[in-house]
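In the design runs reported in the main text, the only information available to the sequence generator was the tokenized backbone. The following block is the verbatim input for one such run; it is reproduced so that readers can re-run the procedure and compare outputs position by position.
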């Protein structure tokens, strides 16, 4: 059966989810963060099956975080701040090399966090693009400036190949399902500062705790 939420999917809703991520004290609610990612994955799946190796990895990581949230220590996973404190205090994170905690919340979220930077750069390019702009070029530029630095050669190669299968700008806008190109631009203009803020709050937290390079 097709869930109702799939039928009324628009990128607007996904981006709105990121809006609800931040508490008034600038804490990041993990539940909403994960919901935002779920929406992005759904969007990516609409773009074609060449992206399934990417969405599979994202889905895996989302699931790890959901398991933490629903686990017996779920109370510690309400916000990214409380998760980091809990896992570090309880020594549940591999800090220098992979070991006993390959599924720590900290290292798992870090992977999605780095991908969020790619998204920010890509959407910014899309927002300032013109009709003849090439989505594959925008996507790979954004990737080369961010996520690629954290990927091994073989992954960079595979990602680079997938980017060439991206639909053109017009189709891309259609899949977003938010209306005319002008409306797409408006939605992106509203959403980008929110995504940037979620990114920056997380980045600062990870920097303060010296966990930006978790294996
Ligand atoms: C719309 C086109 C989508 C382009 C997405 C750009 C990102 C390309 C990323 C390629 C990742 C490929 C698969 C797996 C990589 C993993 O090795 C790494 C590191 O995790 P580890 O091995 O350390 O456990 N995973 C990641 O870097 C997370 C990647 C998540 C990508 C999500 C993209 C969502 C895009 C939303 C589209 C609107």
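Verbatim output:
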């Amino acid at each position: 059966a097709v869930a109702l939420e799939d039928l009324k999917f628009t990128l607007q809703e996904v981006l709105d989810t990121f809006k609800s991520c931040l508490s008034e004290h600038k804490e990041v609610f993990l539940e909403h963060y994960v919901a935002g990612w779920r929406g992005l994955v759904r969007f990516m799946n609409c773009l074609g099956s060449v992206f399934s190796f990417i969405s599979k990895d994202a889905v895996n990581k989302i699931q790890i975080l959901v398991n933490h949230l629903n686990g017996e220590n779920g109370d510690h996973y309400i916000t990214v701040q409380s998760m980091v404190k809990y896992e570090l205090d309880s020594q549940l994170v591999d800090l220098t090399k992979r070991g006993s905690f390959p599924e720590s919340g900290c290292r798992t979220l870090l992977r999605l966090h780095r991908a969020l930077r790619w998204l920010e750069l890509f959407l910014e390019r899309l927002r300032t693009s013109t009709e003849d702009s090439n989505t594959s070029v925008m996507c790979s530029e954004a990737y080369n400036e961010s996520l690629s630095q954290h990927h091994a050669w073989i992954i960079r190669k595979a990602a680079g190949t997938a980017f060439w299968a991206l639909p053109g700008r017009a189709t891309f806008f259609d899949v977003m399902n938010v209306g005319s190109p002008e409306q797409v631009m408006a939605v992106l203009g509203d959403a980008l500062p929110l995504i940037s803020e979620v990114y920056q709050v997380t980045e600062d937290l990870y920097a303060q705790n010296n966990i930006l390079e978790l294996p």
